[in-house]
Amino acid sequence: RKEVEQDPGPFNVPEGATVAFNCTYSNSASQSFFWYRQDCRKEPKLLMSVYSSGNEDGRFTAQLNRASQYISLLIRDSKLSDSATYLCAVKTGTYKYIFGTGTRLKVLA
Amino acid sequence: DGGITQSPKYLFRKEGQNVTLSCEQNLNHDAMYWYRQDPGQGLRLIYYSQIVNDFQKGDIAEGYSVSREKKESFPLTVTSAQKNPTAFYLCASSSRSYNSPLHFGNGTRLTVT
User: Fold this and answer.
1) Contact, A102 vs A8, CB < 8 A?
2) Is the pLDDT score of A22 beyond 70?
3) What H or E segment, with its residue span, contains residue A73?
4) Which residues of A touch B (CB under 8 A)?
5) Is the dihedral of CA B44, B96, A47, A29 positive or negative?
6) pLDDT lower than 50: segments of chain B
7) What distance in Å separates residue A51's CA from the closest CA in chain B?
8) Of A36, A46, B39, B53, which residue is 20 to 30 A from B106 by alpha carbon distance?
9) What share of chain B is helix, strand, coil (3-state, %, to 5)?
10) In this predicted structure, what is the pLDDT of residue A57?
């Protein structure tokens, strides 16, 4: 079993739709969690950290479920510009970050 | 603006040649990392360094070497021993804080023929 798993997609959604991605992790001692956005042939860029109580940044909401060992990302009112690959990252030690393989999102006009 | 600079953006080499990828950061981060990304495989850790003059192997260190002579710099050498060097290489850094995310440079795309 991979340490961090994501559904690769693609998720094809119409503009304005709400879409959610999950990311499961296997190490219960994992400390910190992050969502990154990666555009084609570009570097990953931090979208948001994921806090225990859940957090929101505009149209984006991140949740952490420690009991079931997954994090989620919800995107409301999808825009064409949201089309990208979304990577989750799990920090399991002071210097150990493990990434999922990413979920591709295509927002259709 | 603080950030991580990788150079060059694109690099082409013949098989059998060593090549060095540059990574410089001005974020005053202690830790620096090198990842490799191949299509459909996500990010895989090559090497990381917690402090100057110290570094540790990651999951796929074979065929690579690094140095950390300055806090700001963490160059990666892809040697001729690396069997499949063509990939997208990403340098990253982080602070020591508990919930510090990784910050990435803009990557170097290496093609070896």
Assistant:
1) yes
2) yes
3) strand A70-75
4) 8, 31-32, 34, 41-46, 49, 87, 89, 91, 94-95, 97, 99-102
5) positive
6) none
7) 9
8) B53
9) 0, 50, 50
10) 95
